[in-house]
Amino acid sequence: MFLNASNLSPESTRRLEEVRWRLDSLPANEPGLALDEIAAGIELMLDGPEWPLDQLASALRDFDESAQAIIRQAAQGFVQASVLGTARGAVLHAASTRAFRAIALAGKSFLQRQRYSEEIPTNVAAEMATRLMRAEASRLKWEHLLYGPFDRALWQQMGSVFLEAEEDGRLMLPVHLRRDRDTETSTYREYLRAVALQCSGLEQMPVELVDVADRLIQHLLPALHLGAGPVEGARFIVSPMLGGEPRRLIKAVSEGDPAWYFSPLLAERVFAELELMLGKGVVPGGLGAGPGAKDHIAACIRHFRRTWYDTPSARRHRRHLMGGRLAAVRGFGTFSQVISGGEAAALMSWDLRDVSVGGLGAVAPVSEYGMPRIGELIAMRSDDAVAWRLGLVRRIQRDDITRAFVGVETFALDPRPVKADDGRSPLDVLLCDPLRRGFHLRVAAPEGVLRPGAPLFVAEGGVIQKLKPLTGVWRGHEFEVRTYVAV
User: Fold this and answer.
1) DSSP string over 141-173
2) Helix (H) and strand (E) counts in the chain
3) Predicted confidence band at 312 (pLDDT cuts at 50, 70, 90)?
4) Measuring CA to CA, which residue among 66, 74, 63 is closest to residue 29?
């Protein structure tokens, strides 16, 4: 805990006692309130007379370590709130972000002052820089949990701390941040974690996988590489000196460009080992728990392989900028009610931004209707159109807290609701293609409704048509699409 406070002024001693009180009274089951208390305690340290550096380091260490278990609890609560669509997630996000900012601000204050002090050992400076970097990388992860907006100053802050640590010879210095644990990290590894997060295409992942992706990246850190020169497998670059965020390496970097190269090539060996473990039903500690943990980790591995290794696929169809308004409906059940003549209140108004043969981009309001979800079914119709089209949310980005840019892949241009029967019970489904004997067609339904291998009998236009199931199937969020042939 805190060092001896005998050399503090009366005012600082009073503040120290209040800080201690805040730590001792953290709410056990209220992560939002607990993180607010931690942030308030750190802010109290920085407000008023300067503390001796050893006291500041000790206090920040205690606050930071006290926050870790609470932050994990807050992350779980945030994901649950996002899935359920409750407002608790916004409270947890705000409290977590405030705590990360406070930790980073205290670390920055320490590093600025220790430059002119000869009393602080190098290992303490390395620890404070690493705590700062971990907080900023965690803040980046939490920004991705909401798909933005992103603080561009974050990369400038991390870049300056990274370069200063390199210049002082403590960039790679091992640091033990966790009490009673043997795990080591460093300023370099925490910056590498942030780079890997930014290069992972998190805007294409469901919110429940973003936290899993971060934990998987931390598991992979020993196999990831960030260096000042080109290396095999490097497809991303970042410039700590310029303070910019990582970007994909499209063309050769000029000789004078101060770039660092990120290569995840060696992670493939770890992926293969993890897949063997998952196949045996074993989930490594720290990567997750519960019935869905294996599927979540496997999904992250597939996503990382596509994002880190595969050459980005060329856009198959040209994108055309276009304005206008769209009527939009989220979710299979809601759209089924709308298309059947009810639930008009479920209609949302989106702003069209661009279109292509295979999809469109639109800006959706967030505050009134909540955040769209990756994989969610979206039905859309322009003001001058009669037919609806069905799409799947592939990407979300926010530059504003009230709006989100949504990239939608369209898969049905004129879906039709029909009554169907699988021999057991009547079903309400959507036909995504024309119903013609001998031709394939896709049928959309809520997830788990269509029985694999079971034929469907569909009534349309007064005629009963049998649909024979084929093997094609793909799933979105709470719905699936199966392929049949009309016989």
Assistant:
1) HHHHHTT----THHHHHHHHHHHHHHHTT-SS-
2) 11, 17
3) low
4) 74
Output the furthest CA–CA distance in the chain (Å, rounded): 91
Verdict on whether the full-model pTM lies above 0.85: yes
Rounded CA Rg of the chain? 26
Give the DSSP H/E element, type plus range, for residue 335: helix 332-339
Token reading at 340: 């059947």
Predicted pLDDT at 6: 53
Q: Which of 304, 317, 312, 310 is nearest to 361 (CA)?
A: 317
Asked if residue 331 lies in contact with residue 294, where contact means CB atoms within 8 angstroms, the answer is no
Give yes or no for a contact between 429 and 454, defined as CB atoms under 8 angstroms apart: no
81-131 tens-digit pLDDT: 988 888 899 999 999 999 999 999 999 999 999 988 777 899 999 999 999
As a whole number of angstroms, the distance between CA 371 and CA 369 comes to 7
**Taking Cα atoms as reference points, which of 71, 8, 13, 9 lies closest to residue 38?**
71
Q: How many residues does the chain have?
A: 487
